[in-house]
Every structure is written in C-alpha cells, then in structure tokens.
Amino acid sequence: MGITLSRAAQWTTASSNIGKLEFTPMNELLLKEILSFVEEFSSQHPQQAEHVFKEPLQWTTTLVASDFKTDYDISDSVVQSQEKDSEGHPLLLLSPPNVYVRSFSQLCKLVHLTNDKKLEEVRACLEDNRNPVVKVLGPSFAAELEGDNQDETRLFAKVKEEEEHKDTDDKVKLFLLLQNLDKQLLIKLLHEISQQVELNPAAVKNEVEMLKRSCGNGESRLLKSIQYTSDYEFSNGCRAPPWRQVHGEICYLVIEPCDSETLYITCSTAGVFLNRGIKQKGEENDYERTSDTYEDLVSLLKSKSPQFAKNINKQDCAVQELPSTQKIQHVESVDAEEQGQPQRSYEQQEKNVHEKARQQHTANKAGGKMKYEPCPRWKDLGLKCPPGRAEEKKPNKSSGEEKSGEMYKKKMATGAKSKMKADFSVSSLPGHLSPLKIKTSAGALPVEVFSESSTESEEEEEQPERRPESNTDLPSEYWHIQKLVKYIKGGDQRFTVLTLCTLMDFNLMQETCQLAIRDVGGLEVLINLLDTNEVKCKIGSLKILRKISSSVQIRRAIVEMGGLQSIVKIVDSEEEELMALAAETIAIVARFPKARRTVRQYGGIKKLVKLLDCVSNLANLSVRQEKDVEIARCGTLALWSCSKSTRNKDAIRKAGGIPLLGRLLKSPHESMLIPVVGTLQECASEESYRIAIQTEGMIKDLVKILGSDNDELQMHCASAIFKCAEDKQTRDLVREYKGLQLLVSLLSKADNKHLLAAATGAIWKCSISMENVAKFGEYNALEVLVNLLTDQPEEVLVNVVGAVGEFAQIPENKATIRRCGGIKPLVNLLTGTNQALLVNVTKAVGACATDMDNMVIIDQLDGVRLVWSLLKNPSADVQSSAAWALCPCINNAKTDDRLRRHLAEAIGHCCMWGSNKALFGEAGAVAPLVCYLKSKDSSVHQSTAMALYQLSKDPNNCITMHEKGVVKPLIHIMGSDEEMLQEAAAGCVRNIRLLALANRKVQLFY
Amino acid sequence: FKALFSNYLDNLKNIINSKAISKTEIECLICDFNVLLREQINPGKANGLDRQNFRSILYNKFGMSDAIIMDAVFRTFDTDVDSFISVKEWIEGLSVFLRGTLDEKIKFCFQVYDSNGDNYITKEEMFHMLRNSLIQLPNDEDPEEGVKDMVEITLKRMDYDHDGKVSLADFDKAVREENLLLEAFGTCLPDRKSIRGFEQQVFQHQLEK
Fold first, then answer.
1. Which of A130, A178, A369, A427 is the most buried (most CB within 10 A)?
2. How far is CA B136 from CA A393, A491, A807, in A?
3. How much is the ipTM here?
4. Domains and CATH numbers, chain B
C-alpha cells in the first residue's frame, strides 16, 4: 500500500508529513478496502497476523478503556493486551488518546471493537502513520515494496542476512500480502479513475469557445470575460507548460463572472478546478487545487456564479444548439489531409457502444454489484446462470468452472424448454440481431456516416480497460469462452468448426466477450487457425476476428501477435468467401498506423487492389459475377481503411488501383460506391490522384453520384470534388456535367454538418472560376451561403466564408451580400481564433470593402479595427490576408479624414510586426497612402508620415513611394512645427535617398 | 447407335433433372463411370459401383477419409438401396457434389448425417459421428465429456422446434443462419480443389479424346 498511499491517495497538502486524507470518494474507497483487508486478515492469514511489527503503529484514537473487553489487562484508562512480544512488550497498548499496535491480529481485534467508527480509526491510523509499511516491516522492506520487486529468493536472502529470525517465512509472506494489497488498491483506484470524466484539450477548447461566444454586454450574458493565460498552444492542444502537462493539466483560464470575483481555473484531464491564481506565469504553489473537481467548465461555473447558473439554464436550449463539445470534437476540417476526412463513423459508433457499456457499468456499480449481461443467445441456450448466482462469490477459478457446468446441466435437465420458447420469440425480433448484421444489410459494413468521424490521433488513444477486478466478479461468459477455446485447441476440424459456430453465438460486439476471448488465449488460437489448411476453420476464425476487432484493444493485440500478416496472406487465397472475409477484417483492423503499415509491408495493398479487378460491366451480373463484385467491395473497404496513410495511397496507385476504382465508380450499388468514393476522396489529398481522377474521367461519375439520395455518398463525392477542384479544368468539368446545381441543392441538408462542410467546400473551390460564380448565381447560391454564415461549426464556416469571398469578386455580388445582411456576420467572424477561418474572413471582408456602401457598414461595425488587429496574428497567412483586406479600406477611405487617420496609424503600427511592411507593399497599400498626404487634415498627415516612414524600411516600398512622388509633399511636411511629424517625414525621405545612393553605387561599380 | 445413345442421354438428362450439368458433361461422367466400373474387381456381377470401390473413389478423388461419413455418403448416393451405385445414382450424386445448390447440399448433408433414415438427426447420431473429434483436453479431462457437451450445445442450437432432435427444417434453418454448419458433423462434400481436379480430369480429359 506504499505506492497507493503515497501517490494515489488525495492528501490535503502536498508536501508535509502531517497531512490529512481528504474526504473524497476515492479516499473513501481506499479506506474501505484497507479496512476490509485488516478485518479479514486474522482469519485469512492467522500465522502472519501474529507477526510482530518492527515498530508499533501509533495514532490518536477515539477508543477508551471501557471499549475493551475481558481479554485485555485494564488498569484505569490504560489498556494492555495479554499477548506480549518476545521482550515482554504488550502487542497493544492504549494510553489515551494514543494507541500502539504491534501486530495485525491486534489491529484486527481493535477494528472489530470500534463498531461504527471503523473507518475513522483507519483514517486516523493512516494519517498518523504515513508510511505504515516501514513500521510493519522495516525500512528496507518498504523500499522493496516501492521498487516493485518480485524476486522472492532475493527477499529471502535479504531477510536472512538482516536477522536470524525463525519467522523469516512469515515476514516474506506478510510482505507479499502487503504488496498484493497495494496492487489491488491501485487497480481499484485506476478502475475508479477510468470511470471518471476524462477531459481532453479539444473538449476544453470547444467549451471555452462556446463560453466566449456568450460573453458580451447583454442582459443574458453568461460571463464578463474568459481568457486563457497563455496564447501559445502546444501541438497536442494543451496550453499548460510541459511540466504541468505531465500532471494531466491542459490549460489555465481566467474567468470574470458577472456576479462574483475573478476565477482562476485549471482544466485538466481529470476535470476542472480552481487554482491559487495562475496568471501569466504561475508560481509553483499557484497550481495547487483549491476547489472540488468538476467534470466541465459549465458545472464549475454553475456552482461558482449564481447568475451564470441562472442564465445558462435559460439559454440551455440555445447553448445546446451551438455545436456541442462532442460534435466539434469529431468534425474536422475537411482540408486536413491525413487525418481530416469526415467519414468514419464506425469508430464512433464503437465509441458509443463503449460509452454505453461504461454508463451501464457505472449504473450497475452504483447499484452495488456489477452484473454482466449475457448475450441473448446464451439465454436461448439456457446457459445463463440463474439470477441468484451473480451474487455468489466464486472462491476460485476451477470450482467456479465446475459450478457453472453443474448449473448448465441442471438447467438443461429441468424446465429449460418452456423458458426457451419465450426467449426465442424475443430473439427473433429484428432488434435482436447483432449490430453487425444490421450493418451488412444496410450495405456498408464498417462505414456508416451519419454519426461522427474520428481522427488518427483519436484512434491512437488507448482506452483504459474496464475489467472485473478479480476472479470473483468474472462474468459467466468468461468460463464458457474459456471452455470453448480449450475445445478448439483439442478438437479436430469438425469439432473446431462446431466450437467456432458456438463462439459466434456470443455477443461478440460486447466488450466482456471480446476481452474474455483475449484473456483466455483465444486470440492466439484463432490466429493459429488462419495458418492451417482448413478452409472452414479459417472462415470461422475470420468471422469471429472480424467481429471482435471492433475493440481497439483486440485490434492492437491481433497486430502485435502477427495475426494481421496471416489475414493478409489469406487475401489471395482460392476460396472466395475467405478472400472477402479477410479483406473485410483488414478493413476493420487497419484503423491505426501500425496496422496499416503491416498491411503494406506484407504486400497486402497489392493483393487488395487485385480484388478490385472483377467484372468490367457492373450492370446485369450473373450469380458468379455478383460474388466477384462482393469481393471487390470488401477489397475496397479494406483499401479505404488503409488509404488513411500517405504511403498506402502511393502503394494503391502503384498497384494500379486508380483505374480499377474508376471502373467500380460505375457500379449502380450504393454499398459499393460508398467505399469507392470514400477511398477516392481520401486519396485526393495527393496531387497524383487529383490528376488521375480528372484524366480518367471520374469527375463525370462523381457528379452523377452527387445526384444520388444517400447522404454519406453525397458527402464523399462533394469531399472529392472539394479536393480536386483546386484545378481549373476540374472546376470546368463540374460545371459542364451540371454538378454546380447539385452542390447548391445539398445546402438544403444543413442538418448534416459533415455533408454541409463537404458541399460548401466544393462550392468554395468551384467558385474560384468566375464562370462558375456566374452559374451559381442562377441558383441563388450566394443568398443561401450568406444564411450559413451564422450558427455553423467552423469547418462549415471556413468553406462558406471562402466561397463568399470568391463570390464577392463580382461587383453585383458585393451588393447581394450586403442586401442579404452578410456584412455583419462576416465582421463578427473577425473575432474568431481559427486561422483558416480568419484567412478566409479577412479575404471576404476585403473583397466586400471594395464596395463603398459595404465599406460604410464595415466601418460602422468597427471592422477596420478588427482587421488591423489581425495583422498581429501569429499566422503569416492571416497577416497577409488582413493586410490585403486593409487595402480596399484605404482606397475607399478617400473622403473620410477620420478613417484615413486611423488607417494610416494602424498601418504604421502594424509595420513594426514581422513581414507586414512587405505585405502592405505587395497588397498595394503604399500608393493610396501617398495620396493621403494631399489631405488638409494635419493629423492625417502625421499618421500617414509615420506609416510611410515605417513602410520605407522596405526597399520595394521606397521605389513605389518615389514613383508616386512622395518626396515633394514630405519635404513640405518637414517644415511643420510638429517634431514627430518632422522626424517621420525626414526619416522616410532619408530611407528613399539611401536606397537611391546604394543603387547608384551598384551602377557605378558593376 | 449414336442416335440411340443420344436418346438415352436425353432420357437420363430428364430423369436427373439438373440444370447444372450439361449433356456433354453427363456424357463424360458416363464414360468415366464405365472406366471406374471396369476397374472394379468383379465388374460382371455388379449393377454399379460397390461400396469398397466407391469408398476408394471418395478417398482418392474427393479427399474424404472418415469411414463413418464415407459409408453414410454411399448410403445417400444409393437411393434404391441395392448396395450398388448405378450410373443414374452416380450422376445424380455428382451433380450435387460438383454443382449443387445450397438447397441440394443441405438436403444431401442432412441425409448423410441421418444415419438411420428416420428423417431426424438425433443426439445419438451426432455423438456417433463426433465421437473421435475431440482429440485431447488438458489435465486429463475426458474428451468424451467434451463431445457430449458440444453435442448438447449443437442440438440446442439447431433444434428450433424443441422436439429434442434435428429435422430437415431445423437443419436447413441452422445452415442458412451459419453456412459453416452445413458439414457440421463431418466432411461429406468435396472441397473446391478436389472439385476442380475432378472436373479437369473427367470433363477436359474426355473432351480432348
């Protein structure tokens, strides 16, 4: 318990030896466990219980002499045990308020005396003896315990050399017992922790974003402000410094609620809590936790700010309509290449399953005792334990097994039949089909799309295992599965197939069964079967592997054991069923990089591509051809999974996969088209694919498929067009095949955010061609797009704004945007943080600002200030885009001296940042600025001169200025009374002159 | 003679009533049958292939090895129960072997497994067929118990109408649910490789002649 107590228990203060155990559920659990360990110690280990401690455990007790009974020597308030050690010291001594105990048997007795205060006594004992193991066994042993050393012989030697005691044996046993307890406790606690909410950077970020939006001035605002303490975000999404990240901390926030003082908040993976006030740079003790831990920001704020609680309840619906943390977390930017395809849902579904399992688990936990739901089929088979049995403790493995066997027989013998009838009628309902079956019937096994997708990094996450802590709680399935695996090992082909069929009747999508198969060594057996010559055994094995691979852990285990290699080997077997099954299994297993690499390294990509080469005419198939097409479909599913890795994309291309995919694109079946288009859009991140898609004439098919009525299919199609339409010819082809109208019609499915993101992306890229913009005009696309500028996830907004920016290149569209009320949402988006979005927003605002009427609105909305504040953005792309956007503002601000002054000032200040000088020059800001000098307003002169001085530090700008005849007015200004103005003008002229001189020198010498 | 033979073939084709096998293929099968018949030790007496010859064919050409199952296959081929496989029985049986639909195969396997021909596969029949299928278990556990256990499980699984035995309808349903159960109690159909080998030998070889 050394490790558990020192590391896992939650003490009130981090450093000292006088800490108190906090009253947390975790500690409560810990105490209870230790208590039951002590209580049962005497009866379970009578010999070790007599072992005398190295030093007594001493603590302040609430017990008094009168609590003790006859077998103690009691004189006044002092109590002594009758049992003494070899030197005659009593093993228990009470001299109030202190108690000294020197053996487990005494500890045990004492605990039994305390009745209802047991936990308090344990707590006091642990608080006063921060390292009980040292006292029980001596310091050297305690060190062993910390070191997790299991070498018993060394222990023996150690004990022997240390002391010539007879009870060496006991001591070692005691040591092992304590070590075991420690381990058990840790497992329990981990189990507990794993059930608590785990926050991640993305979730926190989204919550912060959500709260940011609801800051403001209105009556119903939730908060005054919310800020990160650090602008810097690490690549893992954390903002906490690395040495705090190791504690699971993600970021720190400073939140000003409307009605209470400023809150300093730590967001960590374990939850959200108040700290001692981390501002910019935290002092070491600032990081300390000063409040309870909450599962998320909203719950913390609810408890800290009554007004927040009130308002959020009011807004509850509204807030929910905002993209919730969950949603955003899984919807990624369509642009992101390797990881960013909004398509995978199986994973998510699986997650949901886990989620459900977890909820169920927790619920059961709350009910006291865990229960495992046997799969329906077992109920049917009458193998389910009678209800009372779950409460029985199975003392050990073998007897548990026997028992279940008995139960089974009994059940078979007695009234199982009548019960079975009822069960069958239930199980024949369609709802009882396993999820896999349902999916197959829907046509696309591992890919359903309407739910969320996942990123590669997410796949990587190891899920904490939730498994029963000890044998006593193992579900009945475990024993049955163990038996079956034994049968497979010992049986011939017939028996193995029969056993595999029995195994298939378990609910293999259920984690309990999946882990049971793994834990009894079933995976090895199943994988071994793949290497035999028995076709039926291979089929059975794959059918099971395919299902249990829905678990991340199983997938990993299969790859670790080399099972994926065997599966790859089967892909080009002679049996059609095997080929299809192997490919299907690869599709499920190859969901993480190592697996994808394995497929490639063992030549799997080539084999899979070969499967695609089936019939050339996909309409009117014979039975036999249908089988081939089904194999091709499974192959495509596998390639789709594999295509998440760039190298595999190359491998598919090299194996000649692109034309084959192009051929399958003509299939009339959605179940085929989904993986085909999915793979294509995944691979379209590569230039070579984009070219091939265009040259192989696939755009025509893609546009045609865009017209299907399957959301998932449309999404993949739009996504592919999105990626390919960077190319002008592709854009023209989309128009030619009448794809633009279809894309616009997809905008009506605004509820499906993935589809919307893909469709708007495609529209954006297509609108780069002005012919397309004109065509879009016929379908009133712009009006629809403007409506999508609010209340959309960022992935959609980036694309919508990008498209609006392109549309705004045409003058009449600028007016349309204004008329539809698009200017205001655009300006609002300037306050965001998503860089891709900001690039597009500044571009769109800039394009709109070239229209005078728009400019007025932008200025009223303070848009110019917002744009120039973006010149300080860390991203060079945002900077340049912002600089570009400022230029039309400068041009259009001819009449308004106030605006001119501010603009010039802004440029002057922004020039001090990074490459802005050059960017302004490139964006054509210099020439209009020179014109500002013609203004009669001296304050305009001043700021303009300042700006020109800054700009003149860039040689190219000097040339432009000189060409625009800046020198003359500047010299005029130099005669001004204002010192600042003089200096700026003179500095600018000097820079121009220096350049001219340098230029002349160059001409002279070379 | 040719006309006569052709007529005979047509009749045979009608009787056999299988769309899967063409007339030419039937011709080839008949030729092959005659060759096999000639190899038989005392062909004169026989009305067809005898048990021993049939078993060696199953073993050599179709890779079957289980004696119980081979006898059962013989019994299933021998529809007129005269202990000989006539040419008609041969072709009918092979049409299932080579080109059988799932329906035909289910029926065939069921007949093979129903050793007493009472139209049910009983627990005893299952046990008889599976008797030696569990070779070893750890810790000296009795394999026979394991087999009994598996028979119970399988019976429960297939016995949809809860009469304690497996009827053709039960078997049919179970196999349609899980194809692997088709040859649950022993391999009684040739695998793809032997089919290919046989077809190559009999059909193509004959055509070349």
1. A178
2. 31, 7, 76
3. 0.91
4. 2-101+192-207 (1.10.238.10), 104-183 (1.10.238.10)
